[in-house]
Amino acid sequence: MTTFEAMKYGPLGEAVEAAMPSSEADPIGVWAACLSMYSSAISRKVRLDNGRPVVVWTVLAGRSALGRKGYALGTAKGILHPVIGGYLEARIKDGISTGPALVNMLAKLELETMGSETGMDGRALVVEEEWAGLIKSQKACRRFSTLFRTAWDGKAISNETKKEGKVTVVQPLLGFHAHITPGEWAKYVSSSEALGGSYNRLLPVIVERSKILPYDHKPVFPDAKPLRDAFKWATQERRVISFDKAAGKRYDEIRAQVEERAAEMPEMISVYVERAAEQVHRIAAVLAVTEKKTKISRRAVEAAWAFVQKSMASVEQLVRDAAEQSTKPMKTTEDLVREILGRHGGEASSTILLRALGTRTNAAGLKEAVASMDDIEVYKLQQPGRGAKPIMYRLIEDAETKIPESSDSEQKIPLSTKPQLRVVIGQESKPRKKQRKDAAAVVPTPPVANPIMALL
Question: Which of 37, 72, 79, 323 is closest to 206 using CA atoms?
Answer without folding.
Answer: 72
